[in-house]
Amino acid sequence: MQIIPKYLQRLVLAVMIFIFLNNVAFAQKAALGKEKKHYEALNIFPDSIVVREDGMRTSGKRGTFEWWYFDAHLDDGSKIVIVFFTKPTHKVKGRLNPLCTVDIDWPDGSKIHREYTASTKESQFSKEQCDVVIGNNFFRGDLKHYEIHFEDDSLSVDINLERETESWRPHTGHWYFGKRQKKYFAWFPSVPLGEVSADIRYQGSTKKLQGSGYHDHNWYNKNILTMFNHWYWARAEIGDYTIILTQMITTKKYDHTDFPIVMIAKNGEIIADDEEKLKLVKKEIELNKETGKPVASILIFNYEDNDRKYIVTFNREQNIFIKKMIESTRGIPKLIAKITGFDGSYIRFTGDVSLEAYKDNILTDHIEDNAIWELMYFGKNLE
């Protein structure tokens, strides 16, 4: 019979105690930063967004994590996702370790996945604007125009992104946790919708494609598993409308606080973004067989503001990507995850989205289209 080393026993016990305390401790406060003191501390403004907000916002040191995200739907049916990270997702507690990834889904169902890691000497992160360099790869822009480049031995991608819907954030874009509000998670949709041109060279062939895209920027200074239990996140282009909708639920430690977020723009201008006027209804909830997580087949977002009303409905048709987070871990972290019962998962959906717009209770717009949205579930099931 193999005896587990004492150091490993102590490590597992410490982790179990940590998780226990996080779940039984008196609920602490979580809040979306929207007070004057929050804006002043961040040196940003309620009614304007400046270029440096898309620059590096963390130090890159241990315990911080930051990434710049881009995705596009191209005119041949292809989808592309490019992300530049300050470090790998499983090494948040580590030092600066730059990484960029590319995922391409072709119309025939084939896929390309590439990763590139560079030393800190080969990388740079500007604090003045989005200007990230990782080896020969770069992600740079000024809120209005962005250029993204990725290359390796067999793949080269060049992206031009021109903003069409104005940059936006929910208030400061910072969620604060704890009594002193030292822990935070930040999200900045720099380009809610933009026009994309893409040059993709792969194995000797070249494709020049057009489409629409999205870019956002995220950063935080505490393990996200301790802050959020789960979230739904969706964006859609429907006729003249651009829509970003999310529901973020904190962990038990932060009283399972519900943060619904909305942004509706028409012809590039934001017309609705007051989260206090948004209500979410989830229907046909069932447990996903692969992850055991509750999934709503229908999400209905109701937004009412005096004489205006918008109803956005997402109808799930299929799950197009499922990942159990434990599958990305190895060795001791995987053992600890099993012992503590960690069962976090990520599911991406596709289906139909519809928007109904009302003025004085009279229907003025009813538009339908296709959409992709996600459910990130870190914690224990709440439904």
What does this structure look like?
This protein is mainly beta and 383 residues long. The chain has two domains: 1-30 and 226-383, Beta Barrel (AttH-like fold); 33-222, AttH-like domain (AttH-like fold, Beta Barrel), CATH 2.40.370.10. Helices cover 9% and strands 55% of the residues. It is built from three helices and 22 strands. Strands 1, 2, 3, 4, 5, 6, 7, 8, 9, 10, 11, 12 and 13 form a 13-stranded antiparallel sheet that branches. It has a nine-stranded antiparallel sheet with strand order 17-16-15-14-22-21-20-19-18, with no helix packed on it. The relative contact order is 0.13. The model is unreliable at 1-9 (pLDDT under 50).
Quick gist of this model?
This protein has 383 residues and is mainly beta. It is built from three helices and 22 strands.
Task: Spell out the blueprint of helices and strands.
Layout: H1 6-24, E1 30-32, H2 36-42, E2 65-74, E3 79-85, E4 99-105, E5 111-117, E6 123-125, E7 130-134, E8 137-141, E9 145-151, E10 155-165, E11 174-177, E12 183-202, E13 205-220, E14 228-238, E15 241-250, E16 258-266, E17 269-272, E18 278-287, E19 294-305, E20 308-324, H3 331-340, E21 345-359, E22 362-377
Antiparallel strand pairs: 1-11, 2-3, 2-13, 3-4, 4-5, 6-7, 7-8, 8-9, 9-10, 10-12, 11-12, 12-13, 14-15, 14-22, 15-16, 16-17, 18-19, 19-20, 20-21, 21-22
Helix pairs in contact: 1-3
